[in-house]
Amino acid sequence: MSGSFEGDRSDPTRKQESSPKSSSDPKSDPAFESDQSAQAKAEEKFLDDPFAVVADSAEEQQTGQPELVVPEVKAALPPLAMVETAFLASTASLLWLVSYYLSIGAWMRILFPTPIALVYLRWGHRAAWMSALVTGLLLSVLMGPYLSLLFFVPYGLLGVQLGALWKRQAGWTMSIGTGTLISTFGFFFRIWLLSTFLGEDLWIYLTNRITDFTEWILTKLVDWGLLGISALGQPDLTVIQLVTIGAIICSDLVYLFTVHLAAWLLLERLGNPIPEPPSWVQVLLEEEG
Predict the structure, then answer these.
(1) How far is CA 9 from CA 6, 13, 16, 17, 18, in A?
(2) What residue spans of 170-236 are helical by DSSP H?
(3) In 3D, which of 221, 220, 194 has the Cα closest to residue 206?
(4) How far, in Å, CA of 149 to CA of 170, rounded?
(5) What is the pLDDT of residues 82-137, one digit of tens each?
(6) Is the torsion defined by CA of 234, 239, 242, 248 positive or negative?
(7) What CA–CA distances, in Å, run from 214 to 98, 221, 241?
(8) Do 183 and 154 form a contact (C-beta atoms < 8 A)?
(9) pLDDT in tens, 247-281
């Protein structure tokens, strides 16, 4: 009896014969196909939002689903997203700092919202908001809270808004219109913030100076004989304010249009193109080229 037991233990072929044969092609197994499809869906969901929290293995076991293994994506993408978010936030801060202290030129305003919009195009809304907040915090440390607020409103908000509309392939009319409203709000936010610090209503001061400038122009036109003496008089303050608001809106429209042109030329080379401009803009660019 002991000899037969030793023979069974020493002969591995008997165990192989008694065990059922596995299928020759595991890919034909329906369970394998369901695992692959579930894993593909998990990878796609993770790529859409790399900051999303992945369910733990205990919950997967309770639901009866096989554990999804995506080690490469989970290990590589979140650090890459954080690195790009931090890098582009520091780029936006550097552009604002250089433009403020060195006064290189007003053309740098075109690039202020672009880094944050690029973060949205590459990593989604959460990374874009993190980039805008990190930029504000970094500028608060380097330049003070006041100047960091002047960047966040409107340029930080503009970057998130433009990135959201560009990612959804919205037309230039919608993105420029919405951006103009945010930029105009940012102008009046600056006026309010400066008025709070200085203790004086800068909006009334600005409209009074525009009124004086308008009177000076009318006086010169009357002296040159281009207008009659009846043109002189105290201009209506309400009309002056409405004209000032209209001029601010027109200026913001031109600014947002140039931002779109710069982003269209730049982001396409970085692999994150924005929607195509209207046909008349392409015709003008082709004629100039």
Answers:
(1) 5, 10, 12, 14, 13
(2) 172-198, 202-223
(3) 194
(4) 28
(5) 999 999 999 999 999 998 888 776 788 999 999 999 999 999 999 999 999 999 99
(6) negative
(7) 35, 11, 12
(8) yes
(9) 999 999 999 999 999 999 999 999 999 999 999 88
